[in-house]
Write a structure and sequence with these properties.
The complex is a heterodimer of chains A (660) and B (178). Chain A has 660 residues and is of the alpha+beta class. Chain A has 25 helices and 23 strands. Chain A folds into 4 domains: 197 residues, Aldehyde Ferredoxin Oxidoreductase,  A, domain 1, CATH 3.60.9.10; 130 residues, Orthogonal Bundle (Aldehyde Ferredoxin Oxidoreductase Protein, subunit A, domain 2), CATH 1.10.569; 186 residues, Orthogonal Bundle (Aldehyde Ferredoxin Oxidoreductase Protein, subunit A, domain 3); 32 residues, no CATH class. Chain B is α+β, with helices and mostly antiparallel strands and 178 residues long. A two-stranded antiparallel ribbon of chain B has the order 1-7. The chains are: A alpha+beta (660), B alpha+beta (178).
Amino acid sequence: MRFAETGFNLEVDLTRGNIERVESDPSWTEQHLGGLGTNARIMYERVTPDIKAFDPENLLIFGTGLLCGTPAPGANRTILTTISPQTDLLAYSMMGGFFAPELKYAGYDKIIFRGKSPKLVYLWIHNDKVELRDAEHLRGKGSMETAEAIKKELNEPKAHVAAIGLAGENRVYFASIEQGRSSASRLGIGGVMGDKGLKAVVVRGSRDINVAKPQEMFERCQRVLNYIQFREENPVKGVHAIAECLGSPQEMRIIDEEWHTTSFVWGNARTRRKDFWTPEIEEKWAGTQEKARKRLISCYNCPMKCGAIISMDGQANYMMKCFTKLTYTMAAFSDLDFGFRIAQKATEYGIDGYSGPQVMAFALELKEAGILEDHWFEGMPDDNEGKFYWLLDRIVRREGIGDILADGTHWAAEKIGKGAMAYAHNNIKKHEQVPLKLGMLNPVYFLMYATGEKNCITQIEGQFPQSPFDDLELRKEFVKDWHQVPDEKFKDYLMGWNTRGENSNPYYPTVEMSCDIVDWQERMHYIDDAMGVCAGLSSFPLKPPYHMHSYPGIISAASGVELDEDKLTTIARRNRTLVRAFNNRRGMTRADDAPPENHWKKRFPELEKELLEAYYKFRGFNENGIPTKETLVNFGLDFVAEDLIERGILKETAEAVAAE
Amino acid sequence: MKTKTVKNIRVVVDKCNGCRACETICSAFHAQPRYSSNNPDRSRIRIIHEPLKNIYIPVYAGEYTPAECSGRNKYTIDGKDYDECAFCRAACPSRGLFKEPDSGLPLSCDMCQNDPTLEKPMCVQWCLAEALVYETREIPVADDEVTKDELEVGVAALVNNFGMEKLLDIVNRMSRKG
């Protein structure tokens, strides 16, 4: 009997319309746990570097985390994995909501799609009954329209639907997969789904998920809930409003956006508006938000209310969460009313709320600079908001300039030429980043931005405060009940971190400390991604209920896999190394490990070099950022070592490297 | 008026955030052995939800009924249309709710019957949104003692309908049977 997982995957060949239920290898659970870990393993074994995003051989995996479907609070994430059309590297965006637990209850841990359907289809899973159904009548429909239409035609109001909109159908490089209140947005996964001719995946399940140690599992879950309640009543002091509590930043609840609007940059990630937030703005935005927000809502089995039902006059209702609230507003130098309105359309079309607005602001900058001539913009309205709506429509339909922009800023700039690349300035590995430009280099963030395989800082950071506490008393109070630290030394790191003078950025935290801190933060994210636990209850906020000490017990109780902190750390690092190796095999090297040049005003090339090299060493990577044979073998990834050596990416021995 | 004390769950619809933690823990609590498995379809509480219409109604399972209601209504509250069944607690032939997914046998909320008694049912404990409130209420009970005056009205009606003679015959016969 398998615990926590079902032990079965669905293999769907879209080219032939063949569907198989395949038992998974339990030893992979021991090695990688589940979610991203096992997704990455499948990708490594089956998607060779010659396979590109839009090749039929590319896989699109809907994977559930190991804890999804158990009573573990917040374990509801679906981990989607494929090749990104934008970066040509591993894409593994995730979504919360209700899909993953429902898939587990239907009896499957993953759905693995391959091939391309000759006609637009959707997959309908109802326990043992799994079928591909015609979706031609849904072509061009919005993601939410599609979900509602499918639930109606199947007469299954309780089914959960992950669907693409027009952007996915048209293979936009930053198209998302939308699912109720959640979406898998980053790295163009929706474009791959559209390329495969797959409009939606629909699931309804009514089976049991078993846990290995029932009473213990319950008690551990209860402790998680109790701590969530404690944290609700005890917000972290001395940090800005959105970092005080658990969950993803509580953008739907909180009106006060002083921190985002004055610290983040507007337009094409350019302009900081330090004086933007005024009492008048606050009053106006409060009016907009309170009127629009109908209810705060949650994902499956999670008490946090990170999402909301948004209702704008004259538009269909939709669900929103987190930072998309501001990305359109800030890219267009507009206000919250506009942000809520355009996000409704963007959700139906299904595009990433980070990349989308930035691509549009990028286009307008190129027009202003005369790099894109006016004829590209014929018919575009004059007002700022109108321009964004117009560009959104062109992009998702790939019409005119939209066809170029739909590939994201990097590839658009390459196509446009004439110096356009300087305007695609906020990318890492060709992928648009959060619009943030700062003064002094932060060594920990340098490493996370440079090396984070997820290509999205919010899915790499967490646990350790972003900046030092000015006040010594606040530091003392913060570390007092900071039991989440995997090692007491992290308390010392924080206690010694000053805002200026000695022991401040960029030389403190020191190189060694920075590696430790990054390792801790990455480790938590890699565990979450294998577990399907939302980062909002674990790796993202300060002082979460899931941490290095609470995790092993809960995973063991659920799955029966015997774990302690060391074993769990090894698995997290194994998964991290496997993802790295997968990308190395596709040509990623040290040269790609670079934050946007202008992310910080003050840069320190010598220090950055030292940081990068120390991090590689810490991780067991060679100087080129590739895991060494020894590292791979230590993690039991011998087959990866052999493969990389055979391909000439890795040298057999240190001597061979030296000889070169 | 007479009252009796009952314990029940008050549902504060406005506070429900649709997380379905109540369904999760209910099904785990009632699993055999306890907490060994989890399946919301076995839960004795379900959230009827239509997110885009902002409809979230936690309903916990009441009694089994062998027949469905004739004629259903719609309720419109605050401009939102609700099906009558949205508020109904019955395990009924007209819907799949509150039936064991394997056997189809009806499920009914037992307030997490346990020895020792739980402080609150599990769904209430796991609802941090406080949409489910466990409370003790006094409810009125119909007075079951019938006074002679009331009885006399009924007997007079029978006499009126059937005549005194027939009525006495019947009373006589019944009293002899004991």
